[in-house]
Amino acid sequence: MKVWLCENPIGVEALNWRELPDPTPSPTEVFIKIQAASLNFPDLLIVQNKYQMKPPLPFVPGSEFAGTVVAIGDEVKHLKVGQAVACLSGTGGFGTHTLAPASLCIPLPENFDPVDAAAFIMIYATSYHALVDRAQLKASETVLVLGAAGGVGSSAIQIAKAMGATVIAAASSQEKCDFCLKLGADKTINYSEVNLREKLKELTNGKGPDVIYDPVGGEFTEPAFRSIAWRGRYLVVGFAAGTIPNLPINLALLKGASLVGVFWGDFAKREPENNAAMMKTLIQWYVDKKIKPPIDSTMPMDQLFQAYSKMSSRAVMGKLVMVNQ
Ligand SMILES: NC(=O)c1ccc[n+]([C@@H]2O[C@H](COP(=O)([O-])OP(=O)(O)OC[C@H]3O[C@@H](n4cnc5c(N)ncnc54)[C@H](OP(=O)(O)O)[C@@H]3O)[C@@H](O)[C@H]2O)c1
């Protein structure tokens, strides 16, 4: 097998495309031939030693991937050789093959496109958990999505629309705003050009959004929170801008609003049955064509440097997926 090996987590440039012997799965693991692996924001951080999870060295980055089971551990019951799976194991995806814990592999229905499958779990699980479970979003409500053309942002548009809510998508360019409209957003705000607070007032007739989905952090968090509606729920999803904002907590009192943390990874570990039920719903929504990962582009697996560079320069709309030919 060939993999992108990280022996020294000082940045993408230190990764090496290496040939390794095929390993044998332990009793609870499977060996997977990878067809596609998507980039998620943590893949940028993990190779710089800046992510909360710090895998022992050397490791293969690539948090999320899809492929076919080619060998199986003795204790694995829910998978068989030849089964198509999607997996979010945190590492291992950027290569031709990987070992993965069988418990993290989701068997896919027939005809589930492997590129879509590699781009599916992280974004939809995060946004469904955030909007449905944590925010209890209602069809009559309005959601503001920040960083709406990014991976989790674009999935939040689709999940909110599938629930019947009104979506205001906010992003940093007109091209990204147009992309969000194509995904189903009702209105957009280009926050590089207009004042976020004034535009939100105008678009919501002074009421403000009921739910705010924030995977960006940084300079827009405070003005967004100041704009929230009475009884609003502000979803803290991530800090792609790189800074963790400080909020004056009197703002929560004034709006009767809630600041709601979203940590899908821990939800999946602490509440595995609820997570499994959620994944079942999401796979059915895909089969019913209610949701489909927006694929920015695919690139051959050996072009990982170019993919990392595109993502870190904020140039990806939706998901970027590496594929094995
Ligand atoms: N809480 C959870 O359970 C959970 C789960 C998954 C991901 N996350 C987090 O969510 C965040 C977004 O992840 P993602 O995979 O959707 O990333 P992504 O596809 O790169 O999207 C991030 C968006 O953030 C905006 N942004 C603003 N400043 C940026 C900067 N300096 N660098 C990069 N992007 C910047 C960009 O939109 P504009 O150009 O339009 O501003 C970009 O589209 C990350 O912090 C990730 O760790 C959290």
Outline the secondary-structure elements.
Layout: E1 2-5, E2 16-19, E3 29-38, H1 41-46, E4 64-72, E5 84-88, E6 97-101, E7 105-107, H2 114-118, H3 121-134, E8 142-145, H4 151-162, E9 166-171, H5 174-182, E10 187-190, H6 196-203, E11 211-214, H7 221-226, E12 233-236, H8 250-255, E13 258-261, H9 264-270, H10 272-287, E14 295-300, H11 304-312, E15 319-323
Parallel strand pairs: 8-9, 8-11, 9-10, 11-12, 12-13, 14-15
Antiparallel strand pairs: 1-2, 3-4, 3-6, 3-15, 4-5, 5-7
Helix pairs in contact: 3-4, 3-10, 9-10
This protein binds NADP nicotinamide-adenine-dinucleotide phosphate.
Describe this protein with a few key phrases:
325 residues; alpha/beta; seven-stranded mixed beta sheet; six-stranded parallel beta sheet; 11 helices; 15 strands; 30% helix; globular; binds NADP nicotinamide-adenine-dinucleotide phosphate
Provide structural commentary.
With 325 residues, this protein is an alpha/beta fold. 30% of the residues lie in helices and 24% in strands. The protein contains eleven helices and 15 strands. The chain has helices spanning 41-46, 114-118, 121-134, 151-162, 174-182, 196-203, 221-226, 250-255, 264-270, 272-287, 304-312; strands spanning 2-5, 16-19, 29-38, 64-72, 84-88, 97-101, 105-107, 142-145, 166-171, 187-190, 211-214, 233-236, 258-261, 295-300, 319-323. Strands 3, 4, 5, 6, 7, 14 and 15 form a seven-stranded mixed β-sheet that branches. Strand 14, helix 11 and strand 15 (319-323) form a beta-alpha-beta unit. Helix 3 crosses helix 4 and helix 9 crosses helix 10. The chain starts with a strand and ends with a strand.
